[in-house]
Design brief:
Layout lengths: L1 H33 L2 H7 L1 E4 L12 H8 L5 E3 L4 H11 L9 E4 L12 H5 L4 H17 L4 E2 L23 H16 L12 E5 L18 H8 L1 H8 L4 E4 L3 E2 L2 E2 L4 H11 L5 E3 L8 H4 L5 H11 L4 E2 L3 H11 L5 H17 L12 H8 L2 H14 L1 E5 L12 E5 L7 H4 L14 H8 L4 E5 L12 H9 L3 E7 L20 H9 L5 E6 L7 H6 L2 E4 L7 H9 L65 E8 L3 E2 L5 E9 L5 E11 L10 E10 L4 E8 L1 H4 L1 E2 L5 E2 L3 E10 L2 E10 L3
Parallel strand pairs: 1-2, 1-10, 2-3, 3-4, 5-6, 6-9, 12-13, 12-14, 14-15, 15-16, 18-26
Antiparallel strand pairs: 7-8, 11-16, 17-19, 19-22, 20-21, 20-25, 23-24, 25-26
The protein binds 1-deoxynojirimycin.
1-deoxynojirimycin binds next to loops.
Length: about 750
């Protein structure tokens, strides 16, 4: 009986959703009929309101008056129950009482700070990543936030660009999976609950391919690259239900993305049938003027709306000029209505017309921001994000016999640097530093500390004390790297070496002859060849968040066996950039590094990276064997299965991320040497073995062809499985038949 009821409910669900959509449509139509032109434009104006409440509020009297007059549709940078209530109350004084949307950059946590997104991506653990977004949504929603400007799903292959920190790295397949997980985490399966906030797939599109890694710089790429490498994570976010998209600052092939009808009208709202709303990036409509694409602000407003940008974030182009553009016919009234409709639909879906304050609940805020479970989850995600790059002679986990541990370096006792770039409501005092984490776990061992220099290490006045501490210890943990403000927006660097005097610090500590375990913090791949050559172990910890110090200790002491894998290539030198594992062959490939004359090579560097995409060690080892295909030919429409055994051949329980790559050997468009097409995580006890399977179908073998369509071409393929892009354990040939 129960079962039947469930079946009935499931069958009725789509029609219920349909009826609900129809009801919202009807309500939006009624409202649109009542709205003046100015009120419509108001819905498309997004205002930043950092200091609008409190003692300074009188300075913003004109903006507060705009809110009361219904000239503002959404806000960013207003947060907390008290503040959102206060501002919402103003909007409700407007003629039509249309509630505001409150948006915010909740990028890696709200109060509980999680690892930066690139770090989370290194976990390759989709459930953990979804959980991270879920916690952020629960906390933010309880503080009155309806909408986060995340996830950033930009692919980037150039770590000079500071914003690699905010994405999922260089790979389209991995990036698409992570985009989906993050959207689900923020939004749940359906908006409408008071713990679900709207996600934003940003920055549409190709922002991560800025020339020379300089932020906001132009992007120039083929339509194939765009569709094949840069757009799929956006499509994945959309398929997962992303309610909103944000366009981007860059030009793409000469057209600012914000003014690109090709991106927003043809692809996003046309081909992909996106029904949600598109917000501009901060003042990106206005910036079409300095780009040299719009003659003035009025022209920018016309171009942006016509191209499909619905909301103007802090650009003041729409609020000043859109009404005139509609009156003069430069913008059709129906396009304006379409943009306004998209905003209103979201307000209805979130239930704000029923209760404009439903997200701003003081009791819920208290409970959510102090929920101890959130910190446990943050600790779990943080330790999963860490990548063991090197571990010579089993330097890690720290031996039980290590009785004196020196924790050295400018980041050893820093809290701010553990938090990373986007701290929203996190409190510094809550952060556990690496030193604190180690002290808590060290038991009877003596832990000493010497910073040697301040974060950034521009000058070093504590070297002697640091060397003395090292000499006096059994093992050194050296915490170095970037400071929190060296990566992120507008943080492009031409030198991504370890900053300041930190190499010198490493060399001095290494010269003591003591084992040196480096814990590296950063928001991007750094270049550190001497350290890579000489350190005994290197744990790449990114910016790991509130629980960072505990998570580092979990890994160092072996309470957690590291399982992170690089989501991005680590170069050897700046000259190799941009660099990705998904290289193309050339007519002159380097087959042997000793023979590079007239080959596609450098005369002063090898082509290979320092650490490859997918690399990450464990305290145990994994053996791959018995790889086979259910058939080594495949007909169109069929699928086949690739299987292999994986065994834990070491002494500790551990998690391996097995990776599937393909190469299309001959095709009408030259394909990369390797393309990630699948991965799975397997947890195995020592001695345990399991059979793993991947399904290969036409989709796996497809690419974006010269007809600008996805398709797979008959012919030969190579399938590869392994532990990293440069650690392939089995290769199998496959032929796709004509019919
Ligand atoms: C500019 C950034 O590019 C974007 O990612 C962010 O969401 C907005 N500023 C709002 O803070």
């Amino acid at each position: 009986m129960m079962k039947l009821r469930h079946l009935l409910a499931a069958a009725l669900l789509p029609s219920f959703a349909f009826a609900q959509d129809a009801q919202i449509d009807r309500k939006v139509n009624e409202l649109l009929k009542k709205m003046t032109l100015e009120e419509k434009v108001g819905q498309l104006h997004q205002l930043s309101g950092r200091q609008f409440t409190g003692p300074e509020s009188s300075k913003f009297a004109d903006k507060l008056a705009d809110i009361r007059a219904g000239k503002v549709g959404s806000m960013l940078n207003v947060k907390g129950v008290a503040e959102t209530r206060e501002i919402q109350a103003l909007a409700l004084q407007s003629r039509l009482r249309i509630p505001l949307l409150f948006s915010l950059d909740v990028i890696h946590g709200y109060k509980t700070t999680f690892p930066v997104p690139l770090g989370e991506a290194a976990s390759w653990d989709l459930e953990a990543i979804e959980q991270g977004a879920r916690v952020a949504a629960i906390e933010a929603a309880a503080s009155g936030i309806h909408w986060t400007f995340a996830p950033m799903v930009d692919i980037s292959r150039d770590p000079r660009w500071g914003r690699v920190m905010e994405g999922a790295g260089e790979d389209t397949y991995l990036g698409s999976q992570i985009a989906r997980a993050r959207v689900k985490g923020f939004q749940t399966s359906k908006l409408g609950g008071t713990d679900a906030i709207m996600a934003t797939a940003k920055h549409f599109a190709a922002y991560g391919a800025a020339i020379a890694g300089r932020d906001y710089n132009a992007v120039d790429m083929s339509e194939q690259q765009l569709h094949e490498v840069y757009l799929p994570p956006f499509k994945a976010a959309l398929d997962a239900g992303a309610a909103t998209f944000m366009n981007s600052f860059n030009t793409l092939n000469g057209i600012p993305a914000t003014g690109s009808a090709h991106l927003q009208r043809d692809i996003l709202k046309g081909e992909w049938k996106f029904k949600g709303l598109v917000v501009s990036d901060w003042a990106s409509i206005k910036e079409m003027v300095p780009h040299g694409y719009a003659a003035d602000l009025a022209d920018a407003a016309t171009r942006a709306l016509n191209a499909g940008s619905d909301i103007d974030m802090e650009g003041y182009a729409y609020t000043k000029h859109l009404a005139d553009a509609v009156k003069s016919g430069k913008v059709q009234a129906k396009l304006l209505d379409d943009a306004v409709r998209r905003v209103l639909v979201k307000k209805f879906e979130l239930g704000l017309f029923d209760d404009p304050y439903r997200f701003s609940d003081a009791a819920r805020e208290q409970a959510a921001l102090n929920d101890p479970k959130h910190r446990e989850i943050a600790r779990d995600v943080a330790r999963k994000s860490m990548v063991l790059l090197k571990n010579d002679n089993n330097a890690l986990p720290l031996a039980a016999g290590a009785k004196r541990i020196a924790v050295i370096g400018p980041l050893a006792d820093s809290k701010r640097d553990l938090e990373g770039g986007w701290v929203v409501q996190g409190e510094r005092a809550d952060v556990v530093s690496i030193l604190e984490g180690i002290r808590r776990r060290a038991g009877s061992a003596t832990v000493t500390h010497a910073a040697a220099c301040a974060p950034g290490c521009a000058t070093m006045d504590g070297l002697d004390a640091a060397v003395a501490a090292a000499k006096d210890a059994d093992v050194v943990v050296l915490a170095i790297g970037e400071t929190w403000d060296m990566s992120g927006e507008a943080k492009s660097r031409t030198d991504i070496g370890v900053p300041g005097q930190q190499n010198k610090l490493f060399e001095a500590i290494k010269a003591t002859g003591k084992p040196v375990v480096v814990v590296m913090l950063a928001g991007r791949p750094l270049i550190f060849n001497t350290i890579a050559d000489q350190a005994d172990a290197i744990l790449y910890a990114w910016f790991p968040g509130t629980e960072g110090g505990n998570a580092v200790a979990d890994v160092l002491f072996g309470d957690y066996n590291p399982s992170g894998k690089l989501p991005v290539t680590f170069p050897r030198n700046m000259g190799q950039l941009p660099l990705s594992y998904a290289q193309y062959s050339t007519g002159r490939p380097v087959l042997d590094e000793k023979n590079i004359v007239y080959k596609s090579a450098y005369i002063d560097s090898v082509n290979t990276p320092r650490y490859a995409f997918g690399h990450g060690l464990s305290y145990t080892s994994f053996r791959y064997s018995g790889a086979s295909l259910s058939s080594n030919t495949m007909r169109p429409g069929q699928s086949i299965t690739l299987s292999f055994d994986i065994a834990n051949s070491g002494k500790a329980a551990g998690t391996e991320t097995v990776q599937l790559y393909i190469r299309d050997l001959v095709s009408s468009v030259v394909r990369p040497l390797k393309e990630l097409k699948g991965f799975q995580q397997v947890r195995l006890q020592p001695g345990e073995q399991r059979r793993i399977s991947f399904t290969i179908d036409r989709n796996t073998l497809s690419f974006f062809n010269t007809q600008l369509k996805w398709g797979a071409e008959p012919g030969d393929f190579k399938l590869m499985v392994g532990s990293a892009s440069d650690d392939i354990r089995a290769e199998l040939p496959l032929r796709l038949l004509e019919k």
